[in-house]
Amino acid sequence: IGVDVATDAAGNVYILALVAGGDTGWDFTILKYDADGQPLWDRSFNGPAGDEDWPVGLAVDANGNAYVSGTTRVALPFNDDVVLIKYDPDGNDLWTRFLDGGAGGSDQAGGVALSAAGNPYVAGRFRLPGGEWQAGVHKLNSDGSDDWDASTGHPILGIPEDIHGLVLGADGSAYVAFTGSNDVLVTRFDPTGGTAWSHREV
Prior knowledge:
The protein has 202 residues and is an all-beta fold. The chain has strands at residues 2-7, 13-20, 26-33, 39-45, 53-60, 66-75, 79-87, 93-99, 108-114, 120-127, 132-140, 146-151, 156-157, 162-168, 174-180, 183-189, 195-201. The strands form four sheets. Strands 9, 10, 11, 12 and 13 form a five-stranded antiparallel sheet that branches. It has a four-stranded antiparallel sheet with strand order 1-2-3-4, with no helix packed on it. Strands 5-6-7-8 form a four-stranded antiparallel sheet, with no helix packed on it.
């Protein structure tokens, strides 16, 4: 099942897909084709639990590195984390980051976006230790280390916030759209991770 598509500066095409993994349930696959449609490589991802994994977003930087976001099962039965994977132009896995809300429950990935400086941002819905769900954004450096993470500040008990969009401004601000508790929330995080503003529409 096709999930996302992106191109690089050379005209190569990257496709992110959800594929049946047999005993491992659903897995990620990323495929790279040249500008003439010839296959260059494909890679699959199956998470630590060897169970269900769900790809969500794909972005490619100016150097042809591909970033894939998704949700992966890290432990059975239902312990899921947000995962972000970076592949180099030849399809080598440079690093993999698992992002967790701290409750050991089911976290859910949103999209991934890249700043002009090459920093990946990934949105997610995270289960907090108190049992609430809260949506937020993680900004990483190109080597996979943390820069900052920020949350909407609107935890909801029992009714999760769902992520519907992530875009970046020219200055590195992150704009994220969520829904939760029958309303819509749009938040702008400034380049340092502070909340510049947040609007909730019922």
